[in-house]
Amino acid sequence: MVVENDAAPSTLDGWDSLPPFPTNIPVASVNNISHARLLNGDAEELKNLLSSARTTGFVRIDFTDTELGRRFLDGADKMFKLAAKTFDLPAEVKLNDNMLNHGDALLGYKGLGASVVDKDGTRDNNEQYWIGCGDIAGEGHSRAIYNDVLNAHMHEMKSFQDTGKEMTDQLLMVFAAVLGISADSPDYLPKLHSHSQNSGSHVRLLKCPSRPSAKAANLQPHTDWGTLTVLFNALGGLQLYLPQSLLGPDQEAGWYYVKPERGTALVNLGDAMVSWSDGEFKSNIHRVVAPPGEQAQWARYSLAYFTRPNHDVPMKPLGRKITAANSEEQYPTFKEWAMRRALAGRADTFKKGDWEKGQGTEGKLAVEARA
Ligand SMILES: O=C(O)CCC(=O)C(=O)O
Ligand SMILES: [Fe+2]
């Protein structure tokens, strides 16, 4: 019998108590970028950022070398502690916050097994809290509700999300410049993301209970729906699907673990970036499975700041990607995009064909990776 170790390791301290990520497994190659050099406009780091955006859609940013970055890491530590307390609450307390029962904001609690991980409707092995940035900031409240533990820590979540916003806006400015969208345009990317009620941006706490021998994924293969995800975790388990085109001749297309690195977070691009860039930027397909090796005995906590477009923002080409042909086309708003993907992934109403309906921007890759 497996004894579950149910600690919530934080990003900077706590790593030493965890078994190490194995050295003998193949890992996805993800560019490492220094936050300080990026902020200073270092040409090499900008090149790394953009080549990641155009290939794997994932980059690792070292936050130890800026004041903002260190605040972000400190804030993340607090969020991991909050996650441990929150997920320890009785199931009925958490289910009271069930996101399916409080309006259509897609905020609140997602219970263990509430989503599917494959086309047969197999249930997931993760629980999540999605805490809306608007709710945290107190800028108009969605109909979502949150338990007392979360409510008592809104001020900490506010600092964490403010740091996340500042940091992701820095990246959005770079992407806007590349897409030829100037600061005075209504489409300037930072302007499309607010922390008000009218936004899907949120802080997400996740826990995958230990389930070392399970074949099914803990969290389904997917692309992220929104703009940018900043992801913190100490244990392995996250995998990227890498096609042959991104690998060397001696490697095979398939799922590769991403190695967690202390003092860093992963930043990945979501479907909105693909739509706005008309496919130039990539939103890669990823999933969460049991952590590798000895790490599999541990419950896996992760934390993300999701920056998502405001609900009414269209998922259409912007800036230099606008053409006579595509400006005539109809595109969904972000809200429509998110609702379609969320509803198709529900386990309680799942029926044949829903899996396919929940697709994002995976395109051809999805056929290979999600089969
Ligand atoms: O926990 C992780 O490492 C990934 C989570 C994820 O992909 C998501 O919440 O969208
Ligand atoms: Fe994701």
UniProtKB/TrEMBL annotation:
GO molecular-function terms, A-Z: metal ion binding; oxidoreductase activity
Domain Fe2OG dioxygenase: 199-309
Gene3D superfamilies named among the record's database cross-references: B-lactam Antibiotic, Isopenicillin N Synthase, Chain
Residue ranges of the region described as Disordered: 352-371
Swiss-Prot/TrEMBL keywords: Iron, Metal-binding, Oxidoreductase
SUPFAM superfamilies: Clavaminate synthase-like
Pfam families from the UniProt entry: 2OG-FeII_Oxy
Family stated for the protein in its record: Belongs to the iron/ascorbate-dependent oxidoreductase family.
Protein name: Fe2OG dioxygenase domain-containing protein
